[in-house]
Every structure is written in C-alpha cells, then in structure tokens.
Amino acid sequence: MRNLASAEKDLKAALSWSPQTAYLHDQLADVYAVQGKKEQALNEVRKAVALHPVKWSYHEHASRLLFQLGRKEQAREERLKAEALKPYEPQYGEALKASLPSADSR
Asked: What's the CA gap between 76 and 106, in Å, rounded?
C-alpha cells in the first residue's frame, strides 16, 4: 500500500504542474481503483475524457469503472463510444513512420 500512496502523491504533484494532461488523470484513476476508491477513480477518468474525448482507452476505462459501480447502462454507453473510436486512433508505429522524412525527401 505504501507504493500506492507514493504513486498517488507523485501523480497529484504532477497534476499540480500539468492539470491538463489527460494521461496523468487516467493514471491517478488506476491508483484510486486499486485502492478501492471507485468513485474517485471514475471522476479522474471523466477528467481524462473531458481533456481528450477521442481517446478510446479512456472511454473503455470509464466503462470498466461504471460496470464495477453497478451502473451497467452507463458502462454500456461508454463501451460503445470506445468501440466506435478505436478504429480511428492511429497506431504508434504508423504515426512514427508518418512523422519521419521519406526516402525521397532526403
């Protein structure tokens, strides 16, 4: 539990410096969820979704938390959003290749 408390403290400190970073909110949600703080976890995931509404994994994370909280209809809605968004999120390898200069331009 000490590591979780340390992780929570570190993530809160990082968020104080960069409150608009969705990834940090999502990570803090994971820490809260492991601690059994499901409502707090859901609140953090909702912040991540608000900051980055097209990231499918944040909707999927919200879906899992909502299901665990017994809100099955809301969980289903979030899952459907995640499934609809997933095909549009670029793969990291494809994004990296697209960002590199082509052989023709060298």
From this structure: 49
Full set of structural domains in the chain with CATH: 2-88 (1.25.40.10)
SS3 (DSSP) at 21: coil
- Angular region, 52: left φ>0, alpha ψ -120 to 50, beta rest: beta
Q: Is the pLDDT reported for residue 104 higher than 60?
A: no
DSSP string, 39-63: HHHHHHHHHHHHH-TT-HHHHHHHH
Q: What digits encode the pLDDT tens for the residues 8-63?
A: 999 999 999 999 999 999 999 999 999 999 999 999 999 999 999 999 999 999 99
Cα R_g (the chain), whole angstroms: 17
